[in-house]
Amino acid sequence: MARPAGPGKAALLDAGTRLLSKADGVGWEGLSANAVVAEASMSKGAFFHHFPTRRSYALELHARFHDEIERAIAQETAALPPGPERLRRGIMCYLDFCLQHGEAKAFLFSARADGDLTAAVSAMNRRFALLVEPDLTVTGWASAHEVAALAVAAIAEVALIEKDLRNRSRKHRTALLALLRLDQST
After folding, report:
1. Which of 1-10, 17-26, 147-156, 159-168 comes out lowest in average pLDDT?
2. For 48, left (φ over 0), alpha (ψ -120 to 50), or beta?
């Protein structure tokens, strides 16, 4: 199979995202170089030209997903000062993004299941915790740093629940906001 002109690395990442997004998709554990190159209509050599190992591919795909979600949150909250409304809107944006992107469950679940991604997942969780820490500080949390880490874990848990339900869970979103003391103005 000859490599098409132009698509390269992005085409391989897009192919992995499509595979993970399908309702009957391969799942994180089944995301092999063979499956990716078949989906991208590219050669296996092209895969290994861009990604020396499956792990390097998984890390890149994982980072790409989180970069996209971070951009969506930044766009949603850009005009808001740090505080409860920005945090609330950021959380809802994150949950909606995960629900709209089928690959989200694979990425979220990988945090628990794939030891190969542990360091990357921990780094991503710390990155998101740093984003919410100023909001928690303004909201009045004395231990904003620690609460931010716990908030990220709770938000990811709600995202997993909603992916299983294939819909928003008002009950879980309300509980999450109450847990973070953000329910007063909802």
Report:
1. 1-10
2. alpha
